[in-house]
Write the structure tokens for this entry.
Amino acid sequence: MTIRHGCFFSYAHGQHAYMSKFKNDLVDALKCYLEPHFDNENELFVDSEQLGGGDDLDSKIARALCESVCMIVIYTPKYEAHGYTRREFAAMQLIEAERQQWYTLPSHLIIPVIMTRHPVSLPPQIAGPGMYVDFSRYTLASGDLKANPDFIPDIEKIVHRIAEHYHCLKQSTPPEHDCSRFVLPDIPPEWRAIPPPHFPR
């Protein structure tokens, strides 16, 4: 196995400035702070930058996940509503289970970044074991994330966690491991129980 990406970016696509600007600002900040930690690997895999129109989407995503050190999840209620993003999440859970056999994980491979909280609660997949970072105070007026002192400590925590896994993975990956064999799991069920329909009384 060759490590090609520091982190796979998993997010629900947005059409308007708020979602797209947050994603782009976070990508830019993490690339800047991750660069000193890597040799020749890409800091991040972001589908909007690295996939073309003629690509076999499922196989490209599966391989990119397998060749990534960790996964960043930009959590919004929209994220858990989309089957494909839940599928990426489930795929990284499978990868984590496999890597637990190679080395003692210093933390989970999935790093949730809270952009927008669900009005009821965070799902257990996001709020459960491991570290999540809360960026829900971000607005379009927040400016440049990589230079904003309100967000830099959380960015540094994310970078440190990815760097830890990177060095563990470099030392512990079986030489015969082949990421071309990894396939995405089926779309998992909804993260929340679907409420029964309300009928007029």
Remarks:
- The first helix runs from residue 17 to 34.
